Amino acid sequence: MVTSSVLYPRVESLSSSGINCIPKEYIRPQEELNNIGNVFEEVEKNGGPQVPTIDLMEIESEDKTVQDKCREELVRAAKDWGVMHLVNHGIPGDLIDRVRKAGQAFFDLPIEEKEKHANDQASGNVQGYGSKLANNASGQLEWEDYFFHLIFPEDKRDLSVWPKTPNDYTKVTSEYARLLRSLATKILSVLSLGLGLEEGRLEKEVGGMEELLLQMKINYYPRCPQPELALGVEAHTDISALTFILHNMVPGLQLFYEGKWVTAKCVPNSIVMHIGDTVEILSNGKYKSILHRGLVNKEKVRISWAVFCEPPKEKIILKPLTELVTEAEPPLFPPRTFAQHLEHKLFRKTQDSLVPRKAD
């Protein structure tokens, strides 16, 4: 086995090589090509559904009526969409700018410098700099490079794989991780109450402060000479409990809502939050883990910073919570560990690429 950097060049090097046609491994199947549009045209469309924006300013207001209204809006968005723009989230704008600048500075390094941080997926070492290895029978690749690392809890980090350049990378990323972990607790509390559960229930079910892992993936989507043929990230749902995403204000995120792809607007000073499979399972489908994907473009590099809040792989059995299961609403999901859920999704993905797709 060899690593991805040997199998295929980095997408960044393909992009900067001056090619006019992308390699066939990056071209999506015909049924996907029918609905890949120009992202800059898509994002300007104002008709139809829009990803909700939730203002968290009053999430802990002393005025109960005001607080309840804020929380109800968050719960409604989690049930209807499973994704939202969070504003007034409590994480300082200057820190978010520094996180963005630090990640950008790493990807601005020459590729040979970034390769010093290369991961080795074949041996199971997923942390570090990488590009996607084809993990399905179709051999499909995505138009992105990335940097992946665990950022919280602090005692579980491996700082040896973190970028050394820029020199404030560890400081700003660590501070962001701490604040994001607190935000996750607030969100999980509201989601618990929205299910009629005790405030701390979902947090406990996903591992609590000791065990819930925050994994950051900086996604780098280079300019693409044929964006109508490729995807930065193929359609998927997140396996996490929650996912928090920053981006560099270049559009690309699309959500599959009510049978159509909806392009998310770029909302200033926001963090995009997804409900992941883990919370969807625990809530017995009341909260949605929405199918989403990433478009690429010819004009601008897109970068996003996704933090996946994941339960421990083996310690917790994920299944619908007992209080949410009735005769009228039986469990929609079988009991699995997080690791088993991940394996199940990868297996299904492989099967889907072998068998002609059927309508649901």
TrEMBL record:
Entry-linked Pfam families: 2OG-FeII_Oxy, DIOX_N
Domain of life: Eukaryota
Biological-process GO terms, alphabetical: flavonoid biosynthetic process; pigment biosynthetic process
PROSITE patterns for the chain: FE2OG_OXY
Molecular function terms, GO-annotated: dioxygenase activity; L-ascorbic acid binding; metal ion binding
Entry keywords, A to Z: Dioxygenase, Flavonoid biosynthesis, Iron, Metal-binding, Oxidoreductase, Vitamin C
Names of required cofactors: L-ascorbate
Every Fe2OG dioxygenase domain range: 212-311
Matches recorded under InterPro entries: DIOX_N, IPNS-like_FE2OG_OXY, IPNS-like_sf, Oxoglu/Fe-dep_dioxygenase_dom, Plant_2OG-oxidoreductases
Family that this chain belongs to: Belongs to the iron/ascorbate-dependent oxidoreductase family.
Name of this chain's protein: 2-OXOGLUTARATE (2OG) AND FE(II)-DEPENDENT OXYGENASE SUPERFAMILY PROTEIN-RELATED
Species whose genome carries this gene: Salix viminalis (Common osier)
